[in-house]
Every structure is written in C-alpha cells, then in structure tokens.
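Friendly challenge for the regulars: who can give me the structure tokens for this chain first? No prize, just bragging rights.
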Amino acid sequence: MTVAIQGEAGSFSHEAALRLLGARIRVQSCQRFEDVFRTLQEGSADAAVIPIENTLHGSVHENYDHLLHFDHRIVAELNLRIVHNLIVCPGVRFRDIRRVFSHPVALNQCLRFLGAHPDWERVPFYDTAGSVKMLLEERLADAGAIASAVSAEIYGGRILRRSIEDDRQNYTRFFLLRRPDQPPLKLKEQGKKGWKTSIVFSTRNQPGSLFRALSAFALRDLSLTKIESRPLRGRPWEYLFYVDFLGNVEDERVKRALGHLEELCDLLRVFGCYRA
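First reply, four minutes later:
Bragging rights claimed.
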C-alpha cells in the first residue's frame, strides 16, 4: 500500500502511518499538504496521513481547508506522542556539535535542552526527518538534528539524547484519509472508545444561529470533542464550523441530529465516521 505524507520518510506523519497500517507500507513523500491531498485524489496513493492538531500548537488550519476542498473520507485517527531525539552521524561525539538542524516547530519544542547549550547554532530546516537525511548525506561532523527515532533508523543516524522535548504531553492528532470509492481497511491500530464523526457546517450570520445549530447535538446528548471555526471564502466575516462529536452516523439519534442541523445550515458535510 502506498501512503502519501507531507515531509520525508521518517517524519512523524510516517510514524503515524506505520502505527495505523503496519510496516509493509510504502510512503510517498510530498512537499506540501496540498500535494498529499492531490496525490490521493489522482490515485497515485492508496491512502494519506495528515496532522490535524497538536496539543501545544493547536490546529493545522491548512488541512481543515483541504478537507473541504477535496472529496476524501476520514477513516481513522491516531494520537501520537511526539518524542524528539538528538541525532548525529556515526562517530560524532556530543562535544563535537556546533549546529543543530530541525523544523522550527521542533526547535521551539526543545528550548530547555537547547538552552543548556547556548553555543550551539539553531538552524531551521524544512522537515525534521529531512534534517536527518541531509545530515547523513553530507556527513556533517559538527552538527546534529532533532527528529524521530524512526528517522534515525531509516537514514542510519545515531541517537545521542532521547526525549529532549520540553513537554512530555506533546501529542499530534493524525487523520487517515481514503477516497470515497475505496473499500474499508483493516487497521493495525485503532480506537476502542466507540465512534467519532467529523463534519463541517455553516450558518447565516444572524443572532443565535450557532446556538441553534449546536442545540441539535445538545438536545440528543451528543458530546462534542472539538469545534474549530475557519473563514468562509467569498463571504467576509462569515465562518465555517468544523465539529467532531462522539457517535456513529448509523445511530438513530445521530441521524436525527444531522437532519435537524441540515435544516438550520446553508452547508453541511460529513467528512467521516471512525473509531475514537
């Protein structure tokens, strides 16, 4: 199975794909998130894995927009703990390090560790795994990279320090996407806490419109786990609301809630129903 991800092999998206689908996958690296969605749409990949939110940095807004513009289905989610490691070329010692490469977000998530070494230059790079790949390709003897343990394994790097992130409660939530015409997958790892459904809707900019829309869930005791607003293009100061709630679209009360919501909304779309 070919799985499209943003970034190089060994990235956290790759690690999420391995957790969801097992080791016998082939990853197709894409430079941009839009390329991931387009690769799946065009049939060059069988599935795609995208990050949707992080516990420290919030939502990946771009991917919420892509979910609306591409006709893909969310078939699974995974909460992956982000563990950052200091990786070097074989033979490089800790005292040899003068520079550290990684994605800016990863560098910012390891400030305490980096702060203990103020003489190190912090060099932003386009991708965590990409920084390890570059390190090994160029055989840099005075540098390290911050990335996942998977990237060290793939590119032959050596982990000098493990789990150097500031906050151990650093998780990224990933979606596994498929095209609507594809059959169900047998997943290596999936949730066991019932079902979750992801939707998007828009309402008219009138007093109480959002309150009435959300009452469709409250009246049926459906628990919302996430609500995210995004600008509605072409209609200034109006918004789309992305909502995750606990429940299966086949349940009668969920059907009634969505039917009720549809009566109140200008737009309603279900992105997927999957194990929570």
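The longest helix spans residues 252-264. The longest strand covers residues 73-81. Your move, everyone else.
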